[in-house]
Design goal:
Number of strands: 8
Shape: globular
Distance between the termini: 94 Å
Low-confidence stretches: 18-34, 104-151
Radius of gyration: 25 Å
Number of domains: 3
CATH class of the largest domain: Alpha Beta
CATH architecture of the largest domain: Alpha-Beta Complex
Mean pLDDT: 78
Structural class: alpha+beta
Largest sheet: 6 strands, antiparallel
Length: 297
């Protein structure tokens, strides 16, 4: 019995030694390090909110919404260009580490919780409340007059995507239904953008197209890259009202789409302003335009 008590006492000492060590490990810097997130157009959530707050701390103009929209992408590009990084608009590890200082200093960035979300699911822009522990490396912004030269990497990426072969199908939209398609599309002007949205409560770009066509008893694929595979690829000057137009805003694949209205206009669900009209020769959209698909019979 005495020997058993000694064994039990020895075991208790071992356990009491292990528990604090495990506890310390999880509280140590090693236990709290986070991998740099990869953020790009259409990303949502807390990491995007942190990104937007850090850009504000660096004196860049951006709304804190928790949604990585075109405006946030444009601001990220400006930050990257100002810091001699390829201005892809994608927050990779180098961009994140430069914003937070984590890699070089070991000091994690600390910011307030994500912007509140309304009961309807829309993000509410709010002025960020940052704590004293936020660390943002000093960044020298270039003056607007100085300008920044776009690296060829972005143009090369778009050119490469434009040059890819794409599947084609016979045209399928009866010309008599074009007017109804466009009328249905315009009916939802101003509908907010919601990532993954496919109802009038909120649309993403491809969900909007699929919904409009479904209302006219025509079924098309759900995602922009799959929608790009239907119809026949044609030059811009051969597009007709009712055809589809596609863009690569993330510089990797087809990531945005719309319905061509004619005279250089298209209607789409934009991440910044919801369903709206824009022009193909708009300074922003012309840079990311990949091509049009002719679907009208």
């Amino acid at each position: 019995m005495t020997e058993n008590r000694k064994d039990f006492s020895a075991m208790n000492k071992i356990i009491r030694g292990i528990i604090p060590a495990v506890f310390i490990f999880f509280l140590s810097p090693i236990g709290t390090l986070h991998a740099a997130p990869i953020l790009k157009l259409h990303s949502e959530g807390h990491d995007v909110t942190v990104l937007q707050q850090l850009l504000l701390k660096g004196n860049y103009t951006v709304s804190v919404t928790g949604i990585f929209d075109e405006s946030t992408q444009k601001t990220v590009k400006a930050f990257q260009a100002d810091n001699n990084l390829p201005d892809t608009g994608i927050v990779d590890r180098k961009t994140w580490w430069l914003l937070t200082g984590e890699k070089d200093t070991g000091r994690p960035a600390s910011v307030s919780a994500a912007a509140p979300i309304s009961p309807g699911g829309n993000h509410i822009a709010a002025k960020p409340q940052t704590t004293a522990s936020v660390y943002v490396p000093p960044v020298q912004k270039k003056s607007a007059s100085a300008g920044t030269k776009k690296p060829q990497s972005e143009a090369a990426a778009i050119s490469a995507i434009r040059a890819r072969s794409v599947p084609e199908t016979p045209v399928f939209l009866p010309s008599g239904k074009v007017g109804s398609i466009i009328s249905t599309a315009k009916k939802y002007m101003g509908t907010p953008y919601i990532y993954g949205g496919e109802t009038p409560k909120g649309f993403d770009c491809s969900g909007y197209l699929q919904y409009v066509f479904k209302q006219n008893n025509i079924i098309i694929p759900r995602t922009a890259d799959e929608q790009y595979k239907i119809g026949k690829k044609v030059p811009v000057n051969q597009l007709q009202p009712g055809d589809l137009v596609f863009f690569s805003t993330d510089l990797t694949d087809i990531s945005h789409c719309g319905i061509y209205l004619g005279s250089g206009q298209f209607i789409h669900a934009s991440t910044s302003k919801g369903v709206r009209l824009d022009r193909l020769d708009n300074d922003y959209w012309k840079n990311y335009f990949i091509g049009g698909k002719h679907i009208v019979k």
